[in-house]
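Input/output pair, single chain:
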Amino acid sequence: MKIVFITGLSFFMSLFSYLKPAQPQETAIPLCHTTDSQGNDMSAMAADPAFQQLHEAPLPFTYMGAGEMIKFSTPDGQSANGFLLKAKKPSNKWLLVYQEWWGLNDNIKQQSETFYNDLKDVNVLAVDMYDGKVATEPAEAGKLMQGANKDRLMSIQKGAIAYAGPKAEFASVGWCFGGMLSLQSAMLEGKQAKGCVMYYGRPEQDVEKLKTLNTDVLGFFGSQDKGITPESVKTFEENMAKAGEKVTVKMYDAGHGFANPSNPVYNKEAAADAYKLALAYLKDKLKA
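Output:
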């Protein structure tokens, strides 16, 4: 497959290897924001004030829309939570939405409803990756990220995929921490994967793992984002090419979190353009 360039991409996929020992037969999931994959300590990074300053505290926001919280079983014998906006007509089309490092907060619910309203006959499920915990300050989010267990995160994702069923057709979208999870989700979905959208999330750089993708990837990033560089984006593009996969990337003149309306660094123009492109992509991939 050929790489399509709109302009730049990368950020997420090595942090989890520092949280817990990886299971031999499972894909390792990294966490948010690291500059290399050669030994950075995730716990130390999450506690680093400079690292936390890349994520300004979100502005207060209360979601007043539709949707309901649900529970689903996970392969580890536990249960997980999700925010579901069910299609008005029975549908096997699903959009899995992945949170920023703050957790499944009201902003993510609002973003989920926005996609739901603009897509036709698609179930939208925002997956709670922190088991009910939500942060409002960078230090809190850092603690949640430090405490995240890669095996638990993978189990939650697998549970969400199983909840939708074996006939489901998936696309995924996520921001920051969720940008990485969106790519991870696409790999876990196997042949059920139809599309993947990443907003400023660190991607997998392992060529062999990228070869397992059954969909192309659309990514949005900010040139002012100090947690992700154009160089790391280019590396991802090169690795996708080596894997025979297709990635479409657009780099905006904006900072980390530019698409979040509750973020003080919100860039209205960049967010609107990215959403327009993401929506067109998802409509095409899900035939919605």
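The chain is about 35% helix and 20% strand. The two ends are 24 Å apart (CA to CA).
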